[in-house]
Automatic annotation (TrEMBL):
Organism the protein comes from: Streptomyces sirii
Signal peptide: 1-31
Signal found in the keyword field: yes
Lineage of the species this protein comes from: Bacteria, Bacillati, Actinomycetota, Actinomycetes, Kitasatosporales
Protein name: Lipoprotein
UniProt keyword list: Signal
Length: 130
């Protein structure tokens, strides 16, 4: 069989992927336009570790006794994964999508005043900036 008689599958796959990508360009996802979801966690600790998995996250000090997490998430394609859990002194938050994906996410975490916070292993100020 000559090389010209071989199936053109890689080229066909590339064309199909490009067609899907072009079809998605008309889709616009923006977390700021999504309906917010909130979840609160009881908390009595004096320090908190926040793992964000590189999702935009604003941390703010608030007059509250619990931790409140608000999530904005929008997607148009892909396999969605969402997580917000508190285990011990670690708040683990994540939102995104995999595969041929189009999504956007943002979090806001309100922490009781006086709680020391690290974000992804770094000390952070609770000033509401990502």
């Amino acid at each position: 069989m000559s090389s010209s008689a071989l199936p053109k599958r890689p080229a066909a796959l590339a064309v199909a992927a490009a067609a899907v990508a072009l079809g998605l360009t008309g889709c616009s996802v923006e977390a700021s336009q999504a309906k917010p979801e909130s979840k609160s966690f009881p908390y009595r600790g004096t320090s908190l570790k926040v793992k964000t998995h590189e999702v935009a996250t604003d941390l703010v000090a608030a007059d509250r006794k619990d931790i409140k997490v608000t999530r904005w998430f929008d997607s148009a394609a892909g396999t969605v994964h969402l997580r917000w859990t508190l285990k011990g002194d670690t708040l683990d938050i994540d939102a995104g999508c995999t595969g041929l994906a189009l999504c956007d996410a943002r979090f806001r975490v309100e922490v009781p005043k006086g709680v020391a916070v690290t974000k992804d292993g770094h000390k952070t100020r609770l000033d509401g900036r990502s």
